[in-house]
Amino acid sequence: MSTSAQPISIAGAELTHPRHICAFFNSEDEEYRVLMPFIRDGLDCGQKAVHVVSSDRRDRHVGRLSAGGIDASAAQDSGQLDLRIDTDVYLGNGGFDGDRMLQAFERMASKTAEGLSRIVCQMAWAIDHPSCIHDLIAFEARVNDVWARHEDAVVCVYDLAKFSGAVVMDVMRTHPMIIVGGTLQRNPFFVPPAEFLRELEERGIGQPPASGIGV
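Above: the chain's sequence. Below: its structure in token form.
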């Protein structure tokens, strides 16, 4: 990581390092209202955009970008916008593999001449794969080591209506920055990765902390 990261603003505040953010929303409308300026500003600056969405939401996502003043087709054609399907990214080998995912995000990081990417990952795929929840949460802690070495801004989007309170709390504790109520803030609940992973092991390796379904 360079000693002087390029400034990035999102949800009413400037990001500090590391730029690993969990963003909690109650609706798609709220999600795009908060994230669209962040997405548009990055594309306007010539930065790389990587968006991970579900296959059934892909066309809707492109439509939202277009409605926000972004020529998504042109951005994809130029390679500036990299639109990926969530299950291909997270479950590419038929299951969730945290080690493989660390390598995938390392490859994704800081690959542009401008020195950073803005990465938005919609995490709803995990609802349909509850057996992956424990490993996903462990990965969210582990991947902080990747983002500590890079300037990229990474937003993990969670729908509050779909995930249980226990999962939301664990996700929150693995991210140094948080967006809640449409506002970015440094996360007072963040737990250093090594400490959090020890806690997960004490719960029982391979056992999900709670159902992924919202309560």
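The CA atoms of residues 51 and 177 lie 19 Å apart.
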